[in-house]
Write a structure and sequence with these properties.
This protein has a single domain, classed as B12-dependent dehydatase associated subunit (Rossmann fold). Helices cover 34% and strands 22% of the residues. The chain has three helices and five strands. It has a five-stranded mixed sheet with strand order 2-1-3-4-5. The longest helix has 15 residues. The radius of gyration is 13 Å and the shape is globular.
């Protein structure tokens, strides 16, 4: 048998160049606190909502997070319209709000109430 098995299911996080690594830490921690892993893919640019929608399409869990270069963060599910994220935290959001985006992503995957 070969060791090249299928990729582990995870929420895909698309991280735009120039984004603060502390934001990635908070978002990933939020998802992982709920027991859902993340996979980070760096990209050159993009706004948080568009990145989140693209990430959802890449995720086997159908849920994605986008972190824009300006520091905004969004979570999306691939069944929603591109301009309708489940959650959005602006560029000046507190760390707790960024972590909440990770929690939301995990709760979508686990089909739990969002509030």
């Amino acid at each position: 048998m070969s060791g090249g098995g299928a990729e582990r299911p995870a929420v895909v996080v698309l991280l735009a160049a120039g984004a603060d690594p502390a934001i990635l830490h908070e978002v990933s921690a939020g998802a992982e606190e709920e027991g859902v892993p993340t996979r980070v893919d760096p990209v050159q640019e993009g706004d948080a909502v568009a990145l989140a929608h693209t990430a959802a399409g890449l995720s086997t869990l159908r849920t994605g997070i986008g972190i824009g270069g300006d520091g905004a963060v969004a979570v999306h599910h691939d069944t929603l319209p591109a301009d309708a994220p489940v959650g959005l935290a602006g560029p000046d959001a507190a760390a707790a709000d960024q972590r909440t985006i990770g929690h939301l992503a995990a709760r979508i995957v686990k089909v739990l109430p969002l509030a």
